[in-house]
Structure formats: structure tokens, C-alpha cells
Amino acid sequence: MTSGNSTQQPNPPTESTIPPHWVFIQVDRPEPPETQTQDAAAADHGLRQLALVAEDRVKVRRQVTLDDGTVAWLQLARGTVLRPGDRLRTAQGDGCRVVAQPEPVLTVRSPDRLSLLQAAYHLGNRHAPLEIAIDYLRLAPDPTLKDLLERRGLQVIEEIAPFVPDPGAYSMVDRTHHAHNHHHDHAHSHHHE
Hints:
This protein has three helices and eleven strands. It is α+β, with helices and mostly antiparallel strands.
């Protein structure tokens, strides 16, 4: 599923080749909200917003439209996952804030938290992107998974809501440290305890 405000382009433009009325946003590392100072957070009040559905927050290159109608070319570093609240800067120095655009989802609820935990386990085994909260799970619409969850006695609600899936164990959890796997082609030592 893609939102109505982004499209894939065959040949990604560069800052010098985008149309003059566009802005260019190149992101090596977004500024997550928890690293922003109180002054920066106060300045966010007037920032433009970039509303994206979950799937679009991981696409590397594409055209997007900000909430004020400004067309921009967004270019992310590979592996970047934009999170709601992240601040981005344009090449011109202007800022915008990422927000989760509401999209069709399945929200799973149960008064029994163990049942939710078991459902999260089964959905994880199926590699379904999943938003995990203390009292609900949220996933993209899927009739097979909906049936599985209902057969387990869980309440499954089809709704339109922001979807912020957990980035997973192998994603860049701490954005101040580089993500890596355990096959190293370079001299680099670290300890796992």
C-alpha cells in the first residue's frame, strides 16, 4: 500500500536536476525527537509536516508532497526507517517533521495480555510488520492473518489509523551507532556479552 503523496521515479534526480520549484531532502540520519533540545522542540511548532504511511517511511528515493503543498524529492540512506516525530532538513536548511499518515490496518485487542503476546509471536513467525503496544497489536490488512487471529479468540478491528511497526531486532535501534551484521570485511572489534 502506498499513500497518495509519493511516487516511485525511474531515475532519481539530484539536487541540481530537480525542478526549480521542488525542494531536495537528503537524509543520512534523521533527527529523532528524543535527541532534540527543548528549544528545537518548541521551534517544531511551525514546521511543515511530511505524512507518510508505514511502507513509505522505508522507501529510499521518491517524490513526496509536504502538508503545505511543497513538492520535494526525498533521498534516504539505505536502511533508514523514518519514525513519526523525526525531523528532516532540506538542502535549503528548512525543516519538516515526519508524521504517520493514517492508513487501513487491523487492530488486535484482547483482555488477556498473554493472548496478545502469543499472537505477536505467531505474527512474528510470519514476518508480518507489527506495531506492538501494551493493550493492542496493529498490522497491515491481511485476510489470512485476520482469520488466524479471530480463530485464536482475539478481537480484530478493521480501521484507519496511524501504523508504526516495530523496526525489529536487526534494524538501526540506536541511531548513534552504525548497524551491522556479524560478517565483517573490515577491521572492527566489539564485544557481545
